[in-house]
Amino acid sequence: MKASVMKPIRVGLLGIGTVGSGTFNVLRRNQEEIRRRAGRAIEVVMVADLDTERAKQMTGGSVEIVSDGRQVVSHPDIDIVIELIGGDGIARELVMTAIANGKHVVTANKALLAKHGTEIFRAAEEKGVMVAFEAAVAGGIPIIKALREGLTANRIQWIAGIINGTTNFILSEMRDKGLDFDVVLKQAQALGYAEADPTFDIEGVDAAHKATIMSAIAFGVPVQFDKAYVEGITKLSATDIRYAEQLGYRIKLLGIARRVSAGIELRVHPTLIPATRLIANVEGAMNAVLVQGDAVGATLYYGKGAGAEPTASAVIADLVDITRLATADPEHRVPYLAFQSNEMADTPILPMSEVTTSYYLRMRVADKPCVLADVTRILADASISIDAMLQKEAGEGETQTDLIILTHETKEKHADAAIAAIESLSTVAGKVSRIRLEHLG
Length: 441
Ligand code: NDP
Ligand code: HSE
Prior knowledge:
CATH architecture of the largest domain: 3-Layer(aba) Sandwich
Low-confidence stretches: none
Number of domains: 3
Bound molecules: NADPH dihydro-nicotinamide-adenine-dinucleotide phosphate, L-homoserine
Strand content: 25-35%
Number of strands: 17
Largest sheet: 11 strands, mixed
Oligomer: single chain
Shape: elongated
CATH superfamily of the largest domain: NAD(P)-binding Rossmann-like Domain
CATH class of the largest domain: Alpha Beta
Distance between the termini: 50 Å
Mean pLDDT: 95
Structural class: alpha/beta
């Protein structure tokens, strides 16, 4: 049927906050271009939000506004439900009901998919509906499309991404402007980057949700957020950021999913990256995802990872995809997690103790000749070889100094044992500061 004679596809929007309002505005502003691409018009006909007055102002009175999302997901005239409420409470209930009612779903909700994706995709498959989630990972960057379709020929080896705008913004502003953590976090919240609960951003949980989703698509395994290692940026000190720079590295919060012979590494933590890598120079709220495939080699995806319209760009891309495919036989659509659902692997997600990486170790040591020998002996006994070392001159009148060591790769459990032994030396004061290091070569 010609695009001009097909009925518009009808959309119900759940939540018209930052991303919901961006989606509504971009859809309205670019409606003609979008119609020409999708093959038919896409119309938002109903919006649910707790704040109905604000929703009316946002939409200019052009659509029906309700406070209860259940009215949207059960409305017989709605073809696609966009869930932009967030969290895995009411959002989960509404998504599951929408699917049960035969509606396609678009969501930006990585928390929901990382924790309940298996249940959601199974229900959607049974109902023959699509669940699309481009906006859930890296905001406006089409990384889901790239992993699921563009790189489909490849055996993906690893993914490493700066996938949380809030923390990258905080790290950049702290380094460049010397601003305090709390001040920059407030700015990120005001700019609409941060999650409703910003501890999800700063403690690495949001990045782990996204890394979990990417690991599933890259390796054909179920989403397993509970097995991810999660460490945020709250314990990172300005001293380590400074020493890292002196050694030629930048510290970024990385989400890493890597296939190794024993299983899959799935981890989020602050990471030293050589300053010469492109990804080390991704600043502010920008995101970047580096993907290593066996055929294509390394590819890098860069763009805005958060904010109203960048995220709306991804939400609307999903809307257009669904609009184009709504009449296609479900068997001929792209699988939710890239691999056919009956072809998922049970490759284990490895515990952190079995992960292999390099380390930056900083310790406060007595300014005595024997200390370095003691520390290096402990590392040698654990078969950990040293890549570089930096020993600061003790300040005037000081009896202690900083010793920084970069190691070659070792298993985390060997690093743990060596760090414990170093901390027990009488010449080492307090805890060893440990940050993982990846060359991303
Ligand atoms: P907001 O908090 O700005 O918007 C959520 C909206 O949902 C608010 O208007 C809220 O109303 C409304 N809401 C809450 N509960 C209900 C309910 N029971 N029924 C109807 N409406 C409800 O969040 P964002 O727009 O920032 O985020 C939405 C989703 O997008 C989340 O999953 C988030 O993780 C994801 N996301 C966000 C990005 C961003 O840059 N902000 C980027 C990528 C993904 P009220 O304000 O009155 O509570
Ligand atoms: N809070 C998230 C971030 C929003 O800062 O990246 C985008 O998912």
